[in-house]
Amino acid sequence: MNTAVTEMPAPVVFTQAAAGKVAELIAEEGNTELKLRVYVSGGGCSGFQYGFSFDEVANDDDLRIEQSGVTLLIDSMSTQYLMGAEIDYEDGLEGSRFVIRNPNATSTCGCGSSFSV
Predict the structure, then answer these.
(1) Residue 82: exposed, middle, or buried by beta-carbon count in 10 A (0-12, 13-18, 19+)?
(2) What CATH number is given to the structural domain containing 56?
(3) Is residue 2 part of a domain?
(4) Which residue among 14, 32, 39, 61 sits deepest, i.e. has the most Cβ atoms within 10 Å of its Cβ?
(5) Number of domains in the chain
(6) Does 39 map to a domain?
(7) pLDDT tens per residue, range 3-62
(8) Which has the closest alpha carbon to 70: 11, 19, 12?
(9) Is 19 helix (H, G, I), strand (E, B) or coil?
(10) Quick count: other Cβ atoms within 10 Å of Cβ 112?
């Protein structure tokens, strides 16, 4: 009997560009224990908004994604809104920012930091 192991894609994509910027910010803070926490909360002009913070502690129910030596944390409530999303970092003419491309969002505001489902 031959059993093949199929690797499932990550529920959230954390790009190398985003991980690189987070690594740079962590180095500036001087604390190698920091992890990037991404979360969804009520508010913003579209009903929900994205938030980013640094956290030293991962909770038991956090989704953990490793990329280029950086850990991304997403709590279980936020994970349901971010399934299939891509977290990226863009540095362009309009400025530098983290961008979340979320296939679950039915609409987003102009700045991209809030959405509705």
Answers:
(1) buried
(2) 2.60.300.12
(3) no
(4) 14
(5) 1
(6) yes
(7) 665 555 678 999 999 999 999 999 999 999 999 999 999 876 668 889 999 999 999 999
(8) 19
(9) helix
(10) 15
